[in-house]
Design a protein that fits this description.
Distance between the termini: 51 Å
Organism: Streptomyces swartbergensis
Oligomer: single chain
Protein name: DUF1152 domain-containing protein
Number of domains: 2
Pfam family, one: DUF1152
Structural class: alpha/beta
InterPro entries: DUF1152
Number of helices: 15
Strand content: 15-25%
Helix content: 25-40%
Largest sheet: 7 strands, mixed
Length: 365
């Protein structure tokens, strides 16, 4: 019995898919998780999503779909978290290839459905930005979600859209999402996090990290990303809701516009027209800037002193938690130092590690 789970935005959505499978379907056979190879520049310095020709060791599932086993390696300079996910989680990870537009992704899905005859198909989004119109000022990364939504709506098979961690991606406020969320399917608990606990120690996804933290009972306000977006960690954080797939498509202007696209360039053009930008352009600009940055080293004493100042300022903003990405950015450290920074902080101040987040201590602690 095979379940197919489409990780709407790639990245942390693929990690959350493993949580969903364990929570909803128990110890059944492994799932096939269809996801992007699209990582942040600190992992993959090449802007945009990777395709099959950026890897060695892929295994064909269908003519258009390739699985990413643990032995797979990205071809330099590309990087990817998928081989490590495949090594640590028991599921099959398959590669979404958006280079042939929504038509190509739809073809991938149709081939997988024919090949697997899955017991169920879920389209999973952490945070809820898949429900964006496209013109929201807080929206940062609509492209990947719009592609998978548009493709899923064209597949001749029942597909259930699930949104978990509403508001946790910092893109759409929970208050804006609440009216669109349908039936409550599940509320994650600490037990549900166990299958991915090792992954959370290294995976850079902030939204899925906060999802896991709320499932473990963490509450407060978490500051994320370089902009320091405040995200409430509430009882609604670990919930999983079903959302009507057709209603989501009706709302998502970008997804509707790209239904018949045959190239990624077309998708980007529509994103610029509707949203005012393409997030791949942002990555291109940032990648160019990063190339000019000098090699970075970590000065532990200086970092801990800067951290004290950052925490004092964060407390004044009512912040109780933050992510290691946010700390890296706030301390003006090179993104390549994120893991070194994380280890330094956990080793120096272990009581503040509220896995996988960093707890901002009260002034009296």
């Amino acid at each position: 019995m095979t379940r197919l789970i489409v990780a709407a935005g790639g990245g942390g959505d693929a990690v959350a898919a493993a949580m969903i499978h364990s929570a909803l379907y128990g110890d059944e056979d492994q799932a096939v998780i269809l996801t992007y190879a699209w990582d942040r520049l600190l992992i993959d310095p090449v802007p945009g999503p990777r395709g099959p020709d950026n890897f060695t060791g892929l295994q064909p599932l269908t003519p258009a779909v390739w699985a990413v086993p643990a032995e797979t390696r990205p071809i330099a300079p590309a990087g990817s978290t998928l081989p490590r996910l495949a090594a640590e989680l028991r599921h099959t990870f398959a590669l979404i290839d958006p280079r042939h537009g929504v038509e190509g992704v739809t073809r991938q899905l149709e081939e997988l459905v024919d090949h697997l005859s899955p017991e169920s198909i879920d389209l999973l989004d952490v945070g809820g930005d898949i429900l964006a119109r496209g013109d929201e000022p807080t929206l940062k990364s609509p492209l990947a979600d719009a592609v998978t939504l548009a493709a899923c709506c064209q597949v001749n098979a029942p597909i259930r859209l699930l949104v978990t961690g509403p508001g946790l991606d910092g893109e759409l406020p929970l208050d804006d999402l609440r009216s669109m969320l349908g039936q409550l399917i599940h509320t994650f608990t600490a037990k549900d996090v166990e299958p991915i606990s090792s992954v959370l120690e290294w995976h850079p996804s902030e939204a899925t990290g906060m999802l896991a933290a709320t499932a473990r009972g963490v509450r407060g306000t978490c500051e994320m990303r370089d902009a320091g977006l405040p995200v409430p960690l509430t009882d609604e954080g670990p919930t999983v809701h079903e959302v009507d797939l057709d209603e989501a498509l009706t709302r998502n202007q970008l997804a509707r516009a790209i239904l018949t696209t045959a190239t990624l360039d077309e998708i980007e053009a529509h994103s610029r027209d509707i949203c005012g930008y393409s997030e791949i352009d942002y990555e291109r600009n940032k990648a160019t800037w990063l190339k000019d940055q000098p090699p970075a080293q970590l000065d532990p004493d200086a970092v801990l002193s800067q951290l004290d100042q950052f925490e004092a300022e964060a407390r004044s903003r009512g912040v109780t938690h933050t992510t290691f990405r946010r700390i890296t950015e706030a301390l003006n450290l090179n993104g390549s130092l994120r893991e070194d920074l994380r280890q330094l902080l956990i080793n120096s101040r272990p009581k503040q590690y509220d896995a996988p987040l960093w707890r901002i201590t009260a002034a009296t602690e």
